[in-house]
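Q: Structure for this?
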Amino acid sequence: MELTNLHSLSAAEAAGLIRDGVISSAQLVESCLARIREVEPGVQAWAFLDPDYALAQARAADERRLTGQPIGALHGVPVAIKDIFDTADFPTEYGSPIYAGHTPSRDATVVALLRAAGAVILGKTVTTEFAYFSPGKTRNPQNPEHTPGGSSSGSAAAVAAEMVPLAIGSQTNGSTIRPAAYCGVVGFKPTHGLISRYRALALSRSLDHVGLFARSIGDIALITERLVGYDENDPDTKPRAPIPFSQIAAEEPPLTPMFAFIKTPVWARTDEDTKLGFAEIIEQLGSQVEEVELFPSAEKAWEWHQTIMSAEMASNLERIWQRSVGGLSEQLRWQIESGRKALAIDYQRALTQITPMQESFLELFEQRYDAILTPAAPSAAPKGISSTGDPGFCTLWTLCGMPSVSLPLLESSDGLPIGVQLVGARNGDAKLLRTARWLAAKMAAT
Amino acid sequence: MELTNLHSLSAAEAAGLIRDGVISSAQLVESCLARIREVEPGVQAWAFLDPDYALAQARAADERRLTGQPIGALHGVPVAIKDIFDTADFPTEYGSPIYAGHTPSRDATVVALLRAAGAVILGKTVTTEFAYFSPGKTRNPQNPEHTPGGSSSGSAAAVAAEMVPLAIGSQTNGSTIRPAAYCGVVGFKPTHGLISRYRALALSRSLDHVGLFARSIGDIALITERLVGYDENDPDTKPRAPIPFSQIAAEEPPLTPMFAFIKTPVWARTDEDTKLGFAEIIEQLGSQVEEVELFPSAEKAWEWHQTIMSAEMASNLERIWQRSVGGLSEQLRWQIESGRKALAIDYQRALTQITPMQESFLELFEQRYDAILTPAAPSAAPKGISSTGDPGFCTLWTLCGMPSVSLPLLESSDGLPIGVQLVGARNGDAKLLRTARWLAAKMAAT
């Protein structure tokens, strides 16, 4: 076994090699740390990283395996955690100077589940300020002059730069799908309520989702399977039978998938490269894709999303706003102040739009289509790091709590990745991953 | 079998006699109809009643029994439905002239469940306007000069006057417990989310509960057992294992119950008769009751309740307000207009208070007490029918979604019933009924 490029392994490959005793977790983590030493100065994906502590976790995992005790599906595999999830052993600063040095004493549910699956918590990754718009220090690993996207900037960049095979992020508007698209990795935002958000920064109960980053759909399925579950501390999670994500995502679809190409009003903002790329995909798919018009009521979704997000952010961040308003960026202050002025009736009216929209989309899936095909962003990563780009292609699906995945299938004329977004039926997460794998294989074959 | 006073039977007795073929459903319903002819002119409990249709349902039930097919727990037993629950075979006017002649085409979930249990839907009972404050025509069967309470006025009065053994009501503030107390019957408001509210008038998702009326705790348990359940159309219901309400309510408590007597700020409004009555109960209970101070934060509960109720009513009744504001009473208009002005942040702040209060009360139950003892209303039914009285003793428990029951254990100096309210731990509904039966038996024995 060649031990120099272990950091390039997929999580599934790495977990298998560790399980079989071919490599140790310490070797894998050392390789990731070497890669980090090499590329981190240019990328700056990490908010907190302690190489010794990472290696200590890896050695403990190796010792445990040697005792013959049962090991988890991610045993010895390093995972990066966006710095809005509480960790008992790392600071958690939410991307804000107000929380400098903040050290929670408990793990977020997703972190606890990762540890239970044997994962090594490699470190905390850079987030924008409170997972909103104001960027952190991270740069796009494909080109440091360009934004990595946000708000899960460090998680997307760390996976793209092969510093770690898996990372946790979040999405309240476009915070997983957009950085995944800009950095050229697979990003996955599951159905709302599928993964617990307990002890993660709460911006908006109605819109907050846990997001996931990997370099393959198989790895996304592997980590999702460990994280899905009921948590009495997250009122939007529900008890449900376990879903064999890895198995379903790996299967051939029983019927050739049908795609609904939906432009949405954001299509007007797409650049030439994106238009050309989608024309190419649509040509490849032939009779397996049909353009579908968005029902007219959904055109207000962006307005409803802003009403809900600003009102819920104003409530969730109220104490911070009251005590430390001077420590907030102007953008965030504006958003909170806009939310503070919102009327309860407008907020509730926006919330009541969600269910009818979900039902309209469900009909689409029940009648004919396996997934919606749409861009992940209007363009490849824009130049400059003062903005994290346009989340508009994610807003509607986040509002409806529908699962979506971004695949790095296209490329701009200057060689930057362009993300293709597939959106599935609510609670059809495993099937969406299977459809995504089918599409990725088809595009790779042509 | 003496067939003249069948209308006085409990639902459990009647169901048993019908099952055993001792009486028919038609005989029972005829007796109820005769009682209605006698007392309805003075009470005016009914919004819609069709004696022929009631008898037709009863005869159909009798025929079904004779075929030997399995029959439900309420087979042939008449039940009254508050006129805010949709019924496919009766008008549903929500107590408002705006809905005069409105005929839904489907049953509310509770109505469908009652039919599935074999019940005869006897008719629809009077509600205040949209289950809010403006009274209907109903009078208190104990004394027609006094209010029956509201908003479930007709349901409470019909059961109290022995026109029907069981009735369905609702509670968003005090709409079940208060009329039960004023009319001298048992009223039960289960834990929020235990019984589906689908196709009932929606005032406030956070506060709306289905309520139940009977003349005994055993009958409350019998009907509750049929109505509890998950309904995918009511997002606050949850799948759960069936609860044997009748069996648990009938058992002796394994330990002598301990009561926490909580006055709440509303105690300042209680009259002499209520104070004397509670002094008597407390003396009877001796060391089984302790006065407990309400934690200070709960004193704002009445304000939070009003914020939530007015904001959610403004949203739920928005279309009616827009199209028919002139058809609304001044009180209701004021409430909606107050809700329309509410800020989303104040509304959300009120909502976030609920969980911490629920946890404080849960501690009380886990540490020492089986039930909270408190009045159902500040006095017996006030004189006059232009108001439905003071709901203040119900507000806190409705806000917290805790189960509560009103027992007609006391009497005012002029012979009107005074309700004793017991409040239980959330989801401890069956145990609360068992405790209530114990208290009723103890008070009857002394």
